[in-house]
Amino acid sequence: MKKENITEFFRRLSAANPDPKGELDYVNSFTLLVAVVLSAQATDVGVNKATGPLFAIADTPEKMFALGEETVRDYVKSIGLYKTKAKNVIKLCEALIRDHNSAVPQTREELEKLAGVGRKTANVVLNIAFGQPTIAVDTHLFRLGNRTGMATGKTPIEVEKKLARRIPKEYLRHSHHWMILHGRYICKARKPDCAKCIVEDLCSFKGKTTLV
User: Fold this and answer.
1) Which run of H or E residues covers position 137?
2) Distance CA 176, CA 181 (A)
3) Quick check: is 138 catalytic?
4) What is the pLDDT of residues 165-176, one digit of tens each?
5) What is the pTM of this model?
6) Does domain 3-20+135-202 have CATH number 1.10.1670.10?
7) Catalytic residue among 120, 162, 196, 208
8) What is the mean pLDDT of residues 59-88?
9) Which of 33, 159, 167, 202 has its CA at 20 to 30 Å from residue 151's CA atom?
10) Active-site position among 99, 138, 154, 169
């Protein structure tokens, strides 16, 4: 995709949704971190159902840690890999209390030291909680980067680095939200809804559903 097309791509998405939001529910940076850790290989809707009651009683590392692994496990048992995730939540609470005065760190390096936190999770937290222009490449961004021709790559990190270089700075902060929402509701994996796509003419995907 040409540079001018990338600019126009995000100009249109920005005009349609000037202030995009993630779809995970949270009340502060800590609960956001926990929600993102729980969301790996799970839907945001499913995570929100579990975390609503959990966050109502535990919205700080101290409160969550005090619940204990078994109780946290009971709250999140509807989420895939819940046993491992509950263990990671307790471990990261312990680390936040011990090493960070219960505050969520604001660097990728420190975040990735926490249990259950990889690069994608760290990028989501840095972007949403702290407004940093990070790009969290999930399945939607990976698909869109390759499908549109904007940032082709065989690995998430390869796609992330290309997107970071190619997306205009004025659109960088919200870019991953626009792409996630576009991938979730329009540029879907099995059958993209190209007829409803506001950037269809800019996309280099050869399998467009608008073609006869």
Assistant:
1) none
2) 9
3) yes
4) 999 999 999 999
5) 0.91
6) yes
7) 120
8) 97
9) 33
10) 138
